[in-house]
Amino acid sequence: METKAWGNRDKAGEWQPPILPDAPPLFRMPWRFKAAFNHLFGKDGYLSGWNLLYALTATVSWMYLTPAIVKNAIAKDDLALAFQPGWIGLIYLRNALLLLALAGGAHLHLYMRKAQGTTYKYTDKWLATHDKKFLFHNQTYDNVFWNFASGVVIWTAFEALTLWMYGNGRLPFVSFARHPIYGVLMMVGVVYMRAIHFYWIHRISHWRPLYNISHYLHHKNVNIGPWSGLSMHPIEHLLYFSGIFLHWIIPSHPLHAMFHAMHAGLAPVPGHTGFHTLQANAEEDVPMMSTDHYFHYLHHRYFTVNYGDIAFPLDKWLGTLMDGSAESLETLRKKRRAEAIRKKAKA
Questions:
Q1: Average pLDDT in the 60-75 region?
Q2: Residue 325 and residue 331: Cα distance in Å, rounded?
Q3: pLDDT in tens, 15-40
């Protein structure tokens, strides 16, 4: 294998990081406090990296980018909130602009400017521009269309419905002022609720009938880019964003529900950049904002593995983990050969 920067790129153009995906220290035995703490709160830690950014974005959005009519209705028990195009449209605009800033910024830096070339890119291939399987025969245009025509629409619809229910006293409400510790712990809880919900919804989406009518669209993106994460069929968007409904049952503040939906809307972007890490520029060899998204790239490459988030290792516990090593690839091939034999025997 040819070594470039850190990590290795093989003759087929596939790049692999030096450390392969595995359950984080928080879920490994023997349990070590320092390693678990660093995993959660260290540099680029699970709760101090991207997830903290999403939590802060949701908090600022609740405080300054949520229509006053919504917050006033939630704050006052005697003031009902009605469905109105004005405030719902503003929420759509806010969500669309946040997605545009994150996905558009990543796409501009990595795919238009090609600021770091293919350094740390999982494959040396670029996004398709003349491929009939995509709308407009262009992968980026196709992905952007599904992001805004379906993804942000359903994200906003579920968020607006949930805020409307809070505004009419129909959901169990918890005040941050009265229960600050619970409020903060629930923000952490949202991250893990998202991971669990995503695993099962994603695995259900691979059920053949559901895959054939919806999830196939997302898997057109074998070579992924920043806009690929939320490029889904409307049916899949309905399932994917349904995690917000957990807050219809669990006592929460509207911020928790907003954070849940916003996490679902924004987290797919860094996970689908197609790059393992970002650089300040093409010359610098020291990575910044290091991310471990090789795990999900392997799902797009091998299809029936890595359904969830390696930080909450349901894949490892339920036998669907693939770490990219030669051993795990051989195990996957043996499993598929055995399944093919069983299907042939039943036919």
A1: 95
A2: 10
A3: 999 889 999 999 999 999 999 999 99
Domain locations in the chain as residue ranges: 41-309
Residues 6+ apart with CB under 8 A from 226: 102, 103, 104, 106, 107, 110, 111, 269, 272, 273, 274
Pairing relationship of beta strands 2-3 and 15-16 according to DSSP bridges: unpaired
pLDDT in tens, 227-240: 999 999 999 999 99
The answer to whether the Cα torsion of 215, 220, 222, 224 is positive or negative is negative
d(CA 76, CA 339): 58
| Closest by Cα among 276, 288, 225 to 18 | 276
The residue count for the chain: 347
Tokens coding 337: 């050969």
Helix (H) or strand (E) run with residue 191 in it: helix 180-205
304 touches 206 (CB < 8 A): yes
20 CB contacts (<8 Å, ≥6 apart)? 294, 323, 324, 325
Distance CA 111, CA 168 (A): 45
Work out the mean pLDDT of the chain and round it to a whole number: 93
In single-letter form, the type of residue at position 294 comes to Y
Yes or no: say if 268 and 224 are a contact pair by the CB < 8 Å rule: no
Specify the pairing of strand 2-3 against strand 8-9: antiparallel
Could you give the angle at which helices 85-99 and 152-167 cross, rounded to 10 degrees? Answer: 130
The answer to whether residues 310 and 24 touch, using CB atoms and an 8 Å cutoff, is yes
SS3 of 281, please? coil
CB atoms within 10 A of CB 218: 24
Distance CA 347, CA 344 (A): 5
Supply the pTM of this predicted model.
Answer: 0.94
- Supply 222's token pair: 């074998």
CB atoms within 10 A of CB 189: 16
**pLDDT score, position 3:** 39
In the chain the beta strands, taken as DSSP E runs, fall at 2-3, 8-9, 15-16
